[in-house]
UniProtKB/TrEMBL annotation:
<feature type="domain" description="Cytochrome P460">
    <location>
        <begin position="44"/>
        <end position="180"/>
    </location>
</feature>
<dbReference type="InterPro" id="IPR038142">
    <property type="entry name" value="Cytochrome_P460_sp"/>
</dbReference>
<keyword id="KW-0732">Signal</keyword>
<dbReference type="InterPro" id="IPR032033">
    <property type="entry name" value="Cytochrome_P460"/>
</dbReference>
<protein>
    <submittedName>
        <fullName>Cytochrome P460</fullName>
    </submittedName>
</protein>
<feature type="signal peptide">
    <location>
        <begin position="1"/>
        <end position="23"/>
    </location>
</feature>
<dbReference type="Pfam" id="PF16694">
    <property type="entry name" value="Cytochrome_P460"/>
</dbReference>
């Protein structure tokens, strides 16, 4: 191959690479929101929050984590102490499809592909008409390389606004709308 032809191929590959990066940009997850504006940006850093508990339901396994305000409230005895969680308390529930860890004896169940993430934030002024809490549920969107707001076609079906969890959580109104028990250590 001549030097001119090789140079043309290298230039064409470089141009296609740059154009491809522009055509399919990585998702800025902080820009993803549900209706009423609640989104990832308000939960920045949730991946490093303290573990509240683990759970298993609907065929998924989950880790429930909280920001410092949430953890402090749990440690003082919330929700059983009769005091509400403070404004600014945040929690995230990260769901995975379980898989078997074949390399470990007994083949325990461990997290596989992430399925979704759900958020809750206490803001008694902003969410006064939903028990003082705002909710957001986001499904993993593999095609986009990120997340999308959950909707009625998902399993389980989800409303896709900041009140999406209110109807379900009213059965724990006496626990300040929080299901999760803090895993004592």
């Amino acid at each position: 191959m001549s030097n001119i032809r090789l140079s043309a191929v290298v230039v064409a590959a470089s141009v296609l690479s740059v154009l491809g990066a522009w055509a399919i940009p990585a998702q800025d997850k902080d820009a993803v929101k549900v209706e009423n504006g609640l989104g990832f940006a308000e939960f920045r850093g949730y991946e490093d929050w303290t573990l509240i508990a683990i759970s298993q339901n609907n065929g998924k396994i989950a880790a429930i984590v909280g920001n410092p305000a949430m953890i402090d409230a749990y440690r003082r005895g919330a929700p059983g102490d009769g005091k509400p969680f403070p404004d600014g308390a945040r929690m995230a529930k990260i769901h995975w499809t379980p898989k078997t860890q074949e390399a470990y004896p007994g083949e325990p169940t461990v997290p596989g592909a992430q399925h979704d993430v759900d958020f809750m934030v206490k803001d008694s002024k902003r969410f006064a008409d939903s028990g003082g809490w705002g909710w957001a549920a986001f499904e993993v969107d593999a095609a986009a390389g990120g997340f999308r707001p959950a909707n009625e076609t998902d399993s389980p079906p989800q409303a896709h606004d900041a009140k999406c969890g209110f109807a379900c959580h009213t059965i724990v109104q006496d626990r300040d709308y929080v299901f999760t028990e803090y895993g004592k250590r």
